[in-house]
Amino acid sequence: MADRPSITAFFPACNDAGTIGSMVVSVIGALEDLTDDYEVIVVENGSTDYTVEVLESLASHYERLRVFTYRQALGYGGALRVGFASATKDLIFYTDGDAQYDPREIKVLIPALTNKIDIVNGWKIDRGDPLHRKVIGRVYHHLVKFLFGFKLRDVDCDFRLIRREVFNVIDLESDSGTICLELVKKLQDAQFRFAEVPVHHYHRTYGQSQFFNFPRLWRTGIQLIQLWWKLVVRREHMRRIARRRETAPK
Q1: Which domain holds residue 173?
Q2: pLDDT digits (tens, 9 = 90+) for 55-79
């Protein structure tokens, strides 16, 4: 990797008015230490607080900040897809706009992105959430690791540095939080190479989680099953059919 890499940093943001300003300013400071070739993107996703006003103010002060505003919510997956598609630099770093991760820790991801690595995935040193969220998170982690055959230590750590070129190979379709499973599964199946590094995870100081409520958990459960069927069951079925065709008598 070049000493002064080309980096897009982006944040999906929904009702993150109290945190998105510090996230943008912090990541710009970190990027300026790393490179002269960078941009910052925020994909605002149907916020009902003053997130849009904060972003408009930031955009007037930082010329390398690009803001995409959607008054009709895209869903978490939709916001990530917009961010990935809009990035113009060689590397893409993303994390959430709620400040549970420190974007300045992009500096610990960069050294792990050697010539043999395509994606650097963070893993949470200690999850800064209430006990019930930690329990649900561990159950979810072990469930999806079993269902999808994941090899990562922390699949749901949304603190990643990715080579943009991988998106020439994989296409993402999910609109919900299951996009993280789809992303990792498709990257893994395409034999892209991962490195993992520890990062800090902090208590939420503003707003509420968009994920941890019963209706959303229910929808996510349905979407998880659909994704598993598509990426695991049907794919394995098609592989078996292909092998039979290859070995069938001519």
Answers
A1: 6-213
A2: 999 999 999 999 999 988 899 999 9
